[in-house]
Amino acid sequence: MKQFLLVFIGGGLGSALRYLMGIYLNSQKTGIPFGTFAANILGSLIIGIVLGYSLKNNLLSNNTTLFIATGFCGGFTTFSSFAYENHLFLKNGDFMSFATYTIASFVIGFASVFIGMWIVK
Questions:
Q1: What is the pLDDT along the chain (121 residues), one digit of tens a residue?
Q2: Can you spell out the DSSP letters for 27-87?
């Protein structure tokens, strides 16, 4: 139950920060989502630092890693998890899984948005 609460609180904090970044950084004038882009890149950087540090030094507890990587980064952006999972595919030399996962995520993700919008029309 403790781990669930850590992920829950971290996710809430990450989501709230992403919301604030969108308010202040997304451009209403051009329509470019700078806040979302920044959250995705920053979340990827944070998850890379946290998981890399955790694996290298084994100094972060499982609870700290859950709070930051799974909770905060998961709420802040799911792109961070996607980027890390692709890093693992490349690190292990699994180029086919990397290509399949990346292409399928983009194609099916975009298609899902369009299908969802079509459904509610």
A1: 999 999 999 999 999 999 999 999 988 888 778 898 899 899 999 998 998 888 888 888 999 999 999 999 999 987 888 898 899 999 999 999 999 999 999 899 889 888 988 887 7
A2: -TTT---HHHHHHHHHHHHHHHHHHHHHHHH--S-HHHHIIIIIIIHHHH-SHHHHHHHHH
Residues 6, 67 contacting (CB under 8 angstroms): yes
Distance CA 91, CA 73 (A): 21
First-to-last CA distance in the chain? 41
User: Can you give the residue ranges of every domain in the chain?
Assistant: 2-120
Q: How many CB atoms lie within 10 A of CB 83?
A: 19
How far apart (Å, rounded) are the C-alpha atoms in residues 55 and 49? 10
Distant-in-sequence, close-in-space partners of 64: CB < 8 Å, separation ≥ 6: none
State the Cα–Cα distance between residues 54 and 52, nearest whole angstrom: 5
pTM for the structure as a whole: 0.78
